[in-house]
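Researcher: Sequence recovery benchmark, item below. Answer with residues only.
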């Protein structure tokens, strides 16, 4: 009863509504993230420039510019670590470098002396070019003996000597749609083998076909045919004295590189190409494929992690 008689005072608070400001999105976060990423990229560039040597920077720039593997670029001396020490690779010569400072210095001196007395890259390339020119003369002489000038094309390119052996209207190199060499071209390739053995340059053998297609492309096609023809040429060459280790690559290109594109069924497109590589061209291939599992150019990440 006392609570009912007691007077109550009710207080009502009215708040005035104010206009809200415009909604703020997350655009500033995106801008800040872009700025942070740009600063991190700048830091990485500066760190890489300070971590690698001048020769390694030139190597990186060369790779980024997409230099061709057949430009004849010489390899820069690089090092590869192994258990217990490092191996210095200079002009293809390996020497052991132990971790002892005195022995390391002696090893470096030995390498420098060996490089000093070894022929320069210019001398090696000049001798290789002379040998390739002499080989071209020998091949031409053999071709003249067999009266097969219409079946042979020779071309000296920066990568080496390009030998094209083609069909013509009188002679077929292979039986139609097969990889069986005709007797004439088997004898001709057999005569080329001793000539190719006179130099130690690496060789690439490539088979080519015309644009005639088989009915069942899944069962057998020009890729199969060109590859088998290149392998047959390799068998004839090695059987007649060519060192198998001298052959670096055997491949088939089907009808992708027509010699006479205006006449895709022409006999000139059915050919075997023998590419005698210069030493620079073969070394450039090793940069990408490696030699016996050993990469000539080490990945950049490995170099930076060791620095």
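Model:
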């Amino acid at each position: 009863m006392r609570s009912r008689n007691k007077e109550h005072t009710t207080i009502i608070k009215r708040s005035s509504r104010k206009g809200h400001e415009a909604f703020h999105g997350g655009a500033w976060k995106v801008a800040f993230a872009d700025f942070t990423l740009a600063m991190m990229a700048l830091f990485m560039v500066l760190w890489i420039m300070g971590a690698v040597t001048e020769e390694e920077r030139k190597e990186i720039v060369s790779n980024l510019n997409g230099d061709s593997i057949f430009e004849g670029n010489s390899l820069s001396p690089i090092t590869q670590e192994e258990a217990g020490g490092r191996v210095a690779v200079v002009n293809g010569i390996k020497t052991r470098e132990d971790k002892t400072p005195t022995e390391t210095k002696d090893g470096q001196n030995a390498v420098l002396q060996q490089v000093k007395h070894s022929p320069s890259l210019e001398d090696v390339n000049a001798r290789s070019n002379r040998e390739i020119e002499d080989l071209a003369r020998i091949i031409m002489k053999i071709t003249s003996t067999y009266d097969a000038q219409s079946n042979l094309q020779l071309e000296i390119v920066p990568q080496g000597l390009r030998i094209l052996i083609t069909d013509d209207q009188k002679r077929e190199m292979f039986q139609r749609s097969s990889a069986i060499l005709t007797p004439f071209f088997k004898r001709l390739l057999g005569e080329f083998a001793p000539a190719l053995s006179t130099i130690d340059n690496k060789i690439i053998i490539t088979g080519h076909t015309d644009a005639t297609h088989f009915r069942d492309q899944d069962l057998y096609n020009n890729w199969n045919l060109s590859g088998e023809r290149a392998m047959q040429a390799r068998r004839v060459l090695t059987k007649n004295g060519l060192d198998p280790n001298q052959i670096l690559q055997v491949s088939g290109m089907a009808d992708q590189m027509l010699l006479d594109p205006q006449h895709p069924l022409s006999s000139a497109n059915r050919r075997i190409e023998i590419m005698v590589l210069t030493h620079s061209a073969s070394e450039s291939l090793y940069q990408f494929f490696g030699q016996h599992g050993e990469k000539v150019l080490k990945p950049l990440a490995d170099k930076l992690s060791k620095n």
